Amino acid sequence: MLEAFLSGLVQVFMWPAFGYMLIGVAIGFVVGILPGLGGVTTMALMLPFIFTMKPVEAFAFLLGANAVVATTGDITSVLFGVPGEATTAATIVDGHPMAKKGEAGRALGAALMSSLVGAVLGAFVLAASIPVVRPLVLSFGSPELFMLTILGVTFVASLSGGAVVKGLVAGGLGFLFAMVGMDAMTATQRYTYGQLYLWEGIGLVPVTVGIFAIPEIVDLAVKGSSIAQVGEGKMVGVMEGVKDTFRHWWLVLRCSALGTFIGIIPGLGGSVAQWVAYAHAVQSSPGKERFGKGAVEGVLGPGAANNSKEGGALIPTIAFGVPGSASMAILLGGFLIQGLVPGPNMLTKHLDLTFAMVWIIVVSNIITVGVCFLFLQQLARITLVRGGLLIPFILLLVYLGGFTATNSFGDLVVVLAFGLLGYLMVLFNWPRPPLILGLVLGGLAEKYLWLSTDRYGTEWLTRPIVLILALLIVMALIYPLWEQRRQRRPTEVAR
Hints:
The chain is mainly α and 495 residues long. The protein has one domain (2-487). It has 21 helices and two strands. It has a two-stranded antiparallel ribbon.
C-alpha cells in the first residue's frame, strides 16, 4: 500500500497529467466563483474530452475541477452574499456580515484555510479507510438514512438564534416547499397548479440565491454605501483568518470529520454537510448570540465540511460503484469511458490510481488556495467600492446563478419570489437558514421514510443504529432548552 501511495503521488506530477489537472483547477476556479453553474454540470460538460486520455490524466482533469469548486464558491458568498455554489450557502450566514464589518479579508482567509484543511483531511481519510469502509456503508439502509435527516432537522433550533419557534416555523416552510413537484414514489403532482415548470420541484440554487442575495442588494441600495461599513485602514488581513483556523483547530477537525462521514453516505450530499457543520459550530460555541452577526467559527465549520465531503464521497464510489454525490455519479461515467470497473479491482489491481485520486484532491486544493491567497487582499477591497457601482454586477451574478441552474426563466421568477420572502424575513427578524435546511432535507426525509415503511413496516424502528440515532435526536432537542434554562437562571437569581 505504501508503494501504491507513493506511485500515485508520482503519477500526479508526471506530464501531461499535471497539466490536465491545472486546466481542471482553472475551470473549477471559474465555476466556483460564477454562481449557479455547479460542479455537476461542469463535470458533465468535461466528460467528452477524456476519451483519448489515460486514466490518471482523465481523473486529474475531472477531479481537479470538482475538488476546488466549493473552495472558490466561498469567495462570492463572503464578498456579496451570493453563493457561488448551493453548497457554499452556509458560509454567507456569518461570512457576509464579517465583510460588512470590514473583515472580508479575515473571512476569506478563514474560509480558504479551513477548506484546505478539510480537503486534506477528507483525502487522507479516504486513503486510510479504503480497506475498512465496506461494513460502514452497508450498515446504513433507508431507515438509518431517514433518522439522519431527522437528526439534521433537529439542528433547526441551533440555526434559529434565540427564536426557536420562528426557526421551527421557517424549517416547516422549507419542508412545505420541498413537497412541490411530482411525488417520486406515486408520480402524482403536488402544488404544481398546472405549471409544467413546477413538476420537477423548486430548485435549491434559485431559492438559495434569492433568499440570501436579494435582501443584501436591497440593503446596499437603501444605504447607498459600500458593503463594508468601515474604512480601508480598519480592514483585518487575510493572515488573521488563517490564524483563526488554527486557533479553532479542534472545531475545524470535527467539522472535517462530519463532512467526510456525510460524504461517505450516498445521497446526503454537500448541502447537508455544510448545514450540519454550521449547526455543530453553533451548538458547540459558548457565545451562540454571535452567530449570524459575523462569528468566524460560522465560516470555519462549513468551509471544512464542504471540502472534506469530497474525499468521503469518493469512498463508496470507488469501493462499490455507488456514487456518494451527484458529481461522483458523473465521475462514474469517467470510469466507464476509461474501461475501469469500481470495486475490488480499484483496491487491488488499480490501487495506485486510487491513491492518485487522493493526491489529486490534495494537490489541486493546495494550488487553488495558494493562488487565492495571492489576490485575497485585492478581492477584499471590493467591499469598499461604492454600492451603486457594485449592484449591477451583483445582480448579474444573481440572475446568472438563477438561470444556469436549469436554463429556465421560471428560475428567475423563483429568485425574485424568494428574494421578496428573504427580505420580509430579514425585516421581521426571522431566521433564513432553517428554511434552506428544510428544503434540503424535506425531499430526502420523505423518500427514506416511504422506503423504510414500504420495506420493513414498523420493524425498522427497532434497528440498533436507528435507536442510537433516535437517542441523539432526543439529546439534540433537549440540549438547547436546557441551555436556555441554564442561562435564564442567573438572571432570575439576580432579580
